[in-house]
Amino acid sequence: MISAPGGGSRNSEGGRTLTFLANQPVEVLRKVGARRAEALEQIGVSSILDLLTHYPRRYIDRTRQVDVADLHVGEEALVLAEVRSVFTRRPRRGRPIVELEIDDGTGLLRIVFFNQTWRAKQLPKGTEAVFFGKLDTFRGRRQMTNPVVDQVGNRTGRIVPVYPQSEKAGITSWEIGDWIEEALDRAGRLADPLPEALRDEFGLVDRTSAYWKIHRPGSLDEKAEARKRLAFDELLRLQLEVGLRRRVVESESLGVRHDVSRGPSDLVGKFLASLPFALTAAQKHALDVILDDLSSARPMHRLLQGDVGSGKTLVAVTALLVSVQGGHQGALMAPTEVLAEQHALSVGDLLHGFSVEDTGSLTGERPLRVLVLTSRTTASEHARTLGALSDGTCDIVIGTHALLSEEVSFADLGVVVIDEQHRFGVEQRAALRAKGRTGTGTEPDLLVMTATPIPRTAAMVVFGDLEVIELDELPPGRTPVSTKWARTPEMEEAAWHRVREEVAAGHRAYVVCPLVEGSERVQARSAVDERHRLSNGVLSGLELGLLHGQMRNAEKEEVMDRFRRGTTPVLVATTIVEVGVDVPEATVMVIEDAERFGIAQLHQLRGRVGRSDLPSWCYMLSESETPDAATRLLALERTTDGFDLAETDLELRGEGTILGARQKGRSDLKLASLRRGDRPLISSARKAADAILDADPSLFANQLLGDELRLFVGEDEAKYLLKS
């Protein structure tokens, strides 16, 4: 059996714990010496737990095996066969060639590798391996060219696991399988933190069976059972982390009980009555939820995610006004100067003419004051804003990271709004909220917004300290943006013709480029070069502006002002216009080299047009026909629904980028998925986590789960979460 000095390998029921396995180096296995341990470390495996969670990437079902004799030319196939002969030749000109002849008992097949001489050493005569590729013919003989190869060894079971391997490290799938089998044999029974009743409720096998069946399934049904349990464990740990974090916040934080009255005389009532349009049902629901949060003594921790143009800013302004009407201040933090200044303009317009109580004035009131603080705020304005924040005469401040500087202090900060949350880390959110803590221990309420929706199931996992609410409805009068993938010269010509038509009609146009300056390394049009090319070509005679991040702040401000007024009707820009820029007269956007942008970014860019009742267009210029690019661009053509696109993006990119927002964790998900297929499992894990924490809020009675949280989220984080 695997053992270590000092004991502690088993729980009270005698099973090996994951923490114990994580502390066992792979060298404890008989077949792993120093050199193989070093090779394993190259693929991220250094402990027995790492090895057992190095799951197969696919399985070969020998009962459904494709025979060489049944292969058809032009089809992709996976065959399991033995190498009969190996021959290497080096033509005088051209790439070296390795030729194999393989035999599966039903027929012979030639395998050809170009410029892969190491294959001869990897696949000597007598090697059993899996070959995956397209069958073709050469000089009358059937062959596969440069197939994918997995060495599996002489497995006698019907289901053969194929592991991620490293040709560079010299590790094969069958070696990994042998090491895992030894580890399972020696580990014996594994401790299971889930009681039998909970396993029965959610249809889960025990942990020992799960690890055996994921690596040595007797059938594909057994593999599915094992995956379900192990994926559930991954999701349960994340949901426990979410639940514990929420409970810590609820138990330790004291919030402001805001006055959320909405009568005709209060600020909120006046504001909503002044709007020249009706709120959408989604906005009304979001406001009801947020106002209920604000009236509570518990600080609000709310994520408001809504599609481009869904009216998040209006909801945020209402939350800020609740703070102001109670004598507190509000702060809105945005990731860029352009977005902060855009918010300042729109919020200033919305609140123009509003007043707040001021007992020191003759009239008993003063104008509601909205100020801006960014890195390009002048020194004199900066000093005035700091003074107004500290003495309370600034009611709402809108700024960038500049709000986080030590010199910024508030008289009484009641509500914090953070826009485009994916641009900020957890620490930055906490730093701004900390500026609102008072001597009484109260904390400001927090509303985090994003116009880059993530799938609904992912939201439960990523934002552990935030409760999610969605704006899934666009205001009336908005027309969907007609989106075209312009992949031919004729389609591109039509895009530029549309730009000319819209400018002639008095509207505005964006041209977006991925780079600022030309680069020999990256072949993409730059904003600088593109403006020159267009001015002397298809858009000659039109006034073209230029906007990119390397310009001085005063230049950016002047360019945006000219674009808003229509003096410069066409703006050639980088992705600096991706979020927050609101010019209702903009009706057409042309995105150069669109294949270089992700789905979320393309959707955000497209959201700069279609911000009024005017018909609008977005043209994505790209000649790329790669499968990934085609999937993204066709998805943008198909729908303007950001939540739908978020699901497509998740399918393409996987969970890595989304889970990265958590900024912690040993390993988030290896088997479980935040995609559509695992939605029921995510819901089950959430239900189980809530039941466990309701009965045992700090996991005091479930040491196994507590230990596993320490293992997977880190000791310091676990100490914070497991406070009793």
List the helices and strands and how they pair.
Layout: H1 18-22, H2 34-41, H3 48-52, E1 58-61, E2 76-89, E3 97-103, E4 108-114, H4 119-122, E5 128-138, E6 141-145, E7 148-151, E8 159-162, H5 173-187, H6 196-202, H7 207-215, H8 220-252, E9 254-255, H9 267-274, H10 281-294, E10 301-306, H11 312-325, E11 329-333, H12 337-350, E12 355-357, E13 365-367, E14 370-373, H13 379-391, E15 396-399, E16 413-418, H14 426-434, E17 442-443, E18 445-450, H15 456-462, E19 467-471, E20 482-486, H16 489-504, E21 508-512, H17 527-535, E22 544-547, H18 553-565, E23 570-573, E24 586-591, H19 599-606, E25 617-621, H20 627-638, H21 642-653, H22 656-659, H23 679-695, H24 703-713, H25 715-721
Helix pairs in contact: 7-8, 8-23, 9-11, 10-11, 20-21, 24-25
